[in-house]
Amino acid sequence: MQASVLTATIRGVEAVPVEVQADVSSGLPSFTIVGLADATVLEARDRVRSAMRTCGFEFPSARVTVNLAPAPLRKHGTGFDLPIALALLCATRQVPASLSGGVFAVGELGLDGSLRSVGGMLAHMLAAAGAGTPFLAPDGLECASEAVGRVSYRPVRSLRDLRSGLPNEAVAHVTRPPVGRQGLASQPDLAEVAGHSAAKRALEIAAAGGHNLLFVGPPGSGKTMLARRLTGILPALDDTERLETALVHSVAGLDDAPALSGVRPFRAPHHSCSVAGLVGGGTPPRPGEISLAHNGVLFMDELPQFGPAGLQALRQPLEDGRVTLVRAEGRVTYPARFCLVAAMNPCPCGFHGDRNRRCTCRDTDRIRYMARLGGPLLDRIDVCLRVDQVDPEVILSSPGTESTSEVAARVTRGREFTRDAGRQPSCRLTGADLMRASALGRKPRAVLTGMARSYHLSGRGVTRLLRVARTIADLSGSARVDCDHLLEAAGYRAWQS
Predict the structure, then answer these.
(1) Does position 170 have pLDDT exceeding 80, yes or no?
(2) Is 18 exposed, middle or buried (0-12, 13-18, 19+ CB in 10 A)?
(3) Could you tell me the CA-to-CA distances from 418 to 237, 386, 425, 480 in Å, in that order?
């Protein structure tokens, strides 16, 4: 007696289809799983046996062989529990034969037969939609089902629900805030930040053009406070970005509901984070912090304190918007298009250049401290700004400043201006496209040439300066990049020079 059920295993952010084939034949009682399964999958033997008996099914007292095809593909995860149990029930004719071969099943079984979700449910749902089969999975996935849109989701609470055949299709009753400013009420407001007008302008430019940003200043000057307010002025995720972002969070085993509702992610790893934790890795591979910040903000406080290997690993994702992990098993690619916001002290003691406290560091200490970053990484950061402490009188007077919603409205208008011009965001423009979008006249071109020579900019540095100037022009509604735009953009690189 044989039966098969479709399922999948996660590889990167993709669910690779797997066919679970069950064979029940005469012989000494045994339960064997073959097909390059890891220890987590092999443990399904005990869970499936107990769940079947608890739910009133009979576990076959015979030779049971389960094959996971294709055999050369490594399988991992507890999501194979449900398809293995279902294949056995179909093979022993304890559930309707219609459940064999024509469904896509994923879920972890408890010893009482109850079902739990596993990491990557959204990826599994997309694979089921591609296969055109009903999707059997634990309940509570209505929001993901609505996002995918073309899948027949059949929720299963317990193995007992399969006794009478295929469960009814779930009816999605999902209430989400309207797309536009989801989660804004829970975001910290820029109006709470006293002073720092230049830093707020830098945040606005970074949000409008998707630029990377570095704040440099003494302890307590407000660098972290400013960085945490960037997500509030970014536009909400569109439909494509919502699915991309939620997919990464789902594969990582995190809650994908915020991303599905349009809230951009904000990730702030500690500087003790390992390279694998930052860029991804492990066995099986998992997305790192830079992928979890996809379409959102990655905040790296105390930037020079991160390990050198981790900092250098950022260089390729910052350019390409993705990270590729090469392992003995093959290549895995994760999306990693994020806005980097970094913060650091100007020296080891933190008070170099401070007006109120004297720096106690030697020149060699400061040089060694800055050398941890390296020129190639700094060259990939578009906006660098010194953030000094605000005068106490300004803080105590609490003057009325612009709120997050006001700045967000300008950012949205700037992005709409870019979109109406038929262009990508400034951070993605390169080569001829950037020059065409900038439409530099003779005088702005001469100014840019002089800046490149004065600041000793590399080719990448010139490109990034021009990108920032293009974003400033977008915010002002200008079709051309003028000298004023270039001068403001150069001001955000003066600290590096």
Answers:
(1) no
(2) buried
(3) 17, 28, 7, 12
Return the higher-pLDDT residue of 396 and 60: 60
CATH class of 2-162: alpha beta
Residue written as token pair 């896509």: 104
How many Å apart are CA 484 and CA 464, to the nearest integer? Answer: 16
Residue limits of CATH 3.30.230.10 in the chain: 2-162
Categorise residue 35: left if φ over 0, alpha if ψ from -120 to 50, beta otherwise.
left
194-246 residue pLDDT tens: 888 899 999 999 999 999 999 999 998 889 999 999 999 999 999 999 999 99
CA distance 162 to 284: 31
Which residue's structure tokens are 């930052």? Answer: 278
Residue-wise pLDDT tens digits, 109-147 = 999 999 999 999 999 999 999 999 999 999 989 888 888
Residue 359 to residue 355: CA distance in whole angstroms = 10
Q: How high does pLDDT run on average in the chain?
A: 90
In sequence order, which ranges of 36-134 are alpha helices (DSSP H)? 39-42, 44-54, 81-91, 121-131
pLDDT tens for 406-434 read 999 999 999 999 999 999 888 888 888 99
User: Which residues are 339's β-sheet partners?
Assistant: 297
| Ramachandran angles phi, psi of 111, nearest 5° | -65, -20
Determine contact, residues 447/465, Cβ cutoff 8 Å.
Answer: no
Third-level CATH fold of 184-401: Rossmann fold (3.40.50)
Beta partners for 110?
Answer: none
Q: Does residue 297 have a pLDDT over 90?
A: yes
Decide if 90 contacts 99 (C-beta within 8 A): yes
Q: In this structure, which long-range contacts are made by residues 281-290, counting pairs with CB atoms below 8 Å and at least 24 apart in sequence? A: 281/325, 284/10, 284/38, 284/74, 284/76, 284/77, 285/12, 285/325, 285/327, 285/332, 286/251, 286/252, 287/13, 287/248, 287/251, 287/252, 287/334, 288/323, 288/334, 290/314, 290/317, 290/323, 290/336, 290/338
Q: Average of pLDDT values for 69-78?
A: 93
328-333 LR contacts (CB < 8 Å, sep 24+): 329/74, 332/11, 332/12, 332/280, 332/285, 333/12
CA distance 353 to 304: 18
Which is nearest to 325 in space by CA: 334, 314, 316?
A: 334
Where in the chain are all domains bearing CATH 3.40.50.300? Answer: 184-401
The reported pTM is: 0.89
Q: Is the peptide bond before 70 cis (omega within 30 degrees of 0)?
A: yes
Sign of CA dihedral 350, 353, 354, 356: positive
Name the nearest CA neighbour of 338 among 281, 423, 405, 269: 269
